[in-house]
Design brief:
Blueprint: H1 17-20, E1 24-28, H2 40-47, E2 53-57, E3 63-64, E4 67-68, E5 82-85, H3 92-102, E6 106-109, H4 119-135, E7 138-140, E8 146-149, E9 154-157, E10 172-176, H5 179-191, E11 198-201, H6 210-218, E12 225-230, H7 236-249, E13 253-257, H8 262-272, H9 279-288, E14 291-293, H10 297-308, E15 318-322, H11 325-337, H12 347-356, E16 367-368, H13 379-390, E17 396-400, H14 407-418, E18 425-428, H15 437-445, E19 450-451, H16 454-477, E20 497-498, H17 501-510, E21 518-521, H18 523-527, E22 538-543, H19 550-553, E23 556-560, H20 563-580, E24 588-593, E25 598-607, E26 611-618, H21 621-625, E27 629-633, H22 638-647, H23 651-655, H24 665-681, E28 686-696, E29 703-705, E30 708-712
Helix pairs in contact: 3-4, 6-7, 7-9, 10-16, 11-16, 12-13, 13-14, 14-15, 22-24
Length: 717
């Protein structure tokens, strides 16, 4: 996890209370046709319970909808907190100027025609930004649908969703970079009983961004969960910091990231003119922080239900209780697939279960209580649930719900059971939602989440478990600063360039990264050798920053075992270098020890959005065929490096598999952490680092970089 002192400089969270619950709203470009974009906000602000003032602004009208219509913002009575702008794009910058002069602190610009349409629109957006900064006006949009505050009945925007009477408040806030889709999600969630206090469409994010809104909502007392529908962000480090804050507060961010495929990325660019970093970096940020990644509305609804119960498990040990053996097997399969364990129940629990179930019941885990509960209105079934929840080996429980007329009595008894524990209980509904639908409604009204599909039940519990695990890890490790020495000065050329292998290794060795022993010799020195500069066998390579990919150029010879072969190799690679690139600057012949071990690859990319990022995975054919790669953001500590290593699918090759010896995982972790400091300390200059291969030797024998390449950015002037 990236410590706070290495993230983006502290960002002051703007006070958005007057944006979300304004004392008055001026609708600029108000229309007397309430079906038009300029007319819909007037209807929404006057017919849905908003208690503030509404001021239409349009010089063509003296009155709209019984309200005095003002010719411009200067004439609008104070105090007015928000100007909603529904004019064509060329008129918007002037309106921002008027807001500043009238003392209106916020604008919501519905208008399209800005950066999303090309160069002309981008120039207009720059004018809008300049006006906003001159007059200290904060802007939502342009090209957005507005702001929704269901807690205070503020529907400040346009669109069919905002006109629905079925929307409901609840302790969730939605931040969406797609207004139409995001607001539609709020409507679908309401159908399933999930309420949102707030939803904000951020549009082009000329000023206020999705990250600003997420940061604000995390601090709101009436928000327990934030939903973020994201196409991309411009500040990946701030996204990481928000993930840490979410863990600190215990508030999950349900992250719905789109534009992850090449087609999707192009669609995102054309939609909002927002460039996106590779999805793998978002995934790394989501994995480290207080994010729960979701893929669809079902995931959102299911996770929201689970978190709304306000119970976090202490671990991933899951008890499964059913009235059907087949359902128990299915739930057990899904749990294991999602990383949940089904522990053996404690002996005392087994004894208690034998007392309250029939002889043919199964009292292992999963527990099959059978249909016998129909004979006692499922009182014994609640006894089963009570016993499993009380088991010290169990952190959380999934239980199937009984059917029939006795279910209502059982449900009331279940609430009594839950008052005795703080462990999460998720219920898997056994039939259609309208079968005993009133029982489902009763349970969910009392904070007991119910799910129709077994797989969805388990996914929701896995989301809860994953967040709880990250929160515990964060609380254990806290915000401690990383222990390190002062940054090491590297002698780097001022221009953008690629360092040669030998020079790259010298830079890495300065930070304690183990590299191969080697000697750099002029071609004439190689010919004059009377003995090897290092013990045989040796590798021989051309040293040239103009030939970064040596194998493709044919300038590498491996396994050299005698002096004659060494000299011959020197002559061959010199000739191959001249043939490959006659203009290449040749620094000499690099003679190095042959290294061996398990090949891994470590790379650094100084991403424009996320900054210096470390990629690690198995080398050789595994890199391209399996793409078994994981990522972290530099710098990081040894604990993070260890997590990174164990995260790849091929981790067993490092820890010992089927009798193979364990390799030096600790030395590998130290090397990853040291490379992260190289990248972080010199982020202003280093664009990329490629260590390939890095050989991992047997436990206690360390690691060694056999090849390395550093690519530099030009020095800032």
């Amino acid at each position: 996890m990236v410590p706070p002192d290495t993230l983006t400089a502290t960002v002051t969270i703007p006070d958005l209370s007057r944006l979300l619950n304004p004392r008055a709203v001026a609708v600029v470009g108000a229309s007397s046709d309430l079906s038009r974009i300029g007319g819909q906000p007037l209807r929404l602000l006057t017919e849905y319970g908003y208690r503030g003032k509404v001021y239409p602004v349009n010089p063509k009208h003296r009155e709209i909808k019984g309200l005095t219509c003002y010719p411009d913002l200067a004439a609008v009575p104070a105090p007015c907190d928000v100007a909603l702008v529904a004019l064509s794009a060329p008129h918007v910058p002037a309106v921002i100027e008027q807001c500043g002069k009238a003392g209106i602190p916020f604008t919501i610009v519905l208008s399209a025609g800005f950066s999303e349409v090309g160069a002309g629109g981008k120039a207009l957006q720059e004018q809008l930004i300049a006006a906003a900064r001159r007059h200290n006006v904060r802007v939502i949009g342009p090209n957005c649908l507005g702001v929704l505050n269901l807690r205070d009945n503020v529907r400040n925007g346009f669109g069919g969703t905002l006109q629905l009477g079925t929307l409901r408040p609840g302790p969730i806030a939605m931040v969406t970079q797609s207004g139409g889709f995001g607001f539609g999600v709020v409507a679908v969630a309401a159908y399933y009983g999930i309420g949102f206090n707030y939803a904000v469409s951020t549009g082009n994010e000329a000023d206020l961004t999705a990250l600003d809104l997420i940061g604000y909502f995390l601090e709101c007392d009436d928000v327990e969960t934030v939903v973020a529908f994201l196409e991309g962000v411009a500040d990946g480090r701030r996204l990481i910091a928000l993930g840490e804050r979410a863990l600190e507060l215990g508030k999950p961010i349900l992250a719905w990231k789109v534009g992850n495929t090449e087609v999707g990325r192009q669609a995102a660019i054309s939609h909002t003119a927002r460039l996106t970093a590779g999805y793998e970096l978002y995934r790394a940020a989501f994995r480290a922080g207080g994010f729960v990644e979701i893929d669809d509305i079902d995931d959102l609804v299911d996770a929201a239900k689970a978190f709304h119960a306000r119970r976090l498990p202490r671990g991933n040990r899951t008890g499964v209780i059913t009235l059907s053996g087949g359902a128990g097997v299915l739930l057990a399969d899904r749990c294991v697939e999602r990383g949940l364990t089904l522990p053996q129940l404690a002996p005392d629990t087994g004894a208690r279960l034998r007392e309250v179930t029939v002889a043919f019941a199964s009292v292992g885990n999963p527990v099959d209580a059978t249909a016998h509960g129909y004979n006692d209105q499922f009182a014994s079934y609640n006894d089963v649930i009570r016993a499993v929840l009380a088991d010290p080996n169990v952190d959380q429980v999934i239980a199937r719900v009984p059917r029939g007329s006795a279910a209502a009595v059982w449900a009331r008894g279940l609430l009594e059971v839950l008052r005795e524990t703080d462990k999460p209980l998720l219920l898997n509904w056994p039939s259609s939602p309208d079968d005993n639908g009133e029982v489902m409604a009763f349970l969910e009204q009392h904070g007991v989440p119910c799910y129709v599909a077994p797989g969805r039940t388990v996914r929701a519990l896995a989301a809860l478990t994953g967040f709880a695990e990250k929160k515990r890890r964060y609380e254990t490790r806290g915000k401690r600063a990383l222990q390190r020495a002062e940054a090491i000065k590297l002698d780097l050329p001022a221009s953008a360039s690629t360092l040669s292998e030998h020079r790259s290794k010298q830079c890495l060795a300065a930070y304690g990264v183990p590299v191969t022993r080697e000697a750099l010799l002029a071609p004439a020195e190689v010919e004059a050798l009377t003995g090897p500069p290092l013990p045989f066998p040796l590798a021989v390579k051309i040293e040239s920053s103009d030939i970064p990919h040596k194998t493709e150029a044919g300038v590498v010879r491996l396994g050299i075992r005698d002096l004659a072969s060494l000299k011959q190799a020197g002559r061959e690679i010199a000739a191959a270098a001249r043939e490959h690139n006659p203009d290449a600057r040749i620094a000499g012949v690099l003679v190095q020890e042959m290294a061996s071990g398990l090949e891994v690859i470590v790379g650094v990319v100084n991403d424009p959005y996320f900054g210096p990022t470390i990629a690690f995975g198995l080398g050789g054919i595994f890199t391209e065929v399996l793409h078994d790669i994981t990522h972290r953001f530099a710098p990081f500590d040894l604990d993070t490096a260890r997590e990174m290593i164990m995260e790849i699918k091929g981790a067993k090759l490092l820890t010992g598999y089927r009798g193979s010896p364990a390799l030096d995982v600790e030395a590998l972790a130290q090397t990853l952490a040291r490379l992260s400091w190289v990248a972080a300390d010199h982020a202003d200059r280093i664009a990329e680092i490629d260590v390939n291969p890095l050989f991992v030797r047997a436990a206690g024998e360390g690691v060694v970089a056999a090849d390395a390449l550093i690519v530099l950015k030009g020095e800032r002037r």
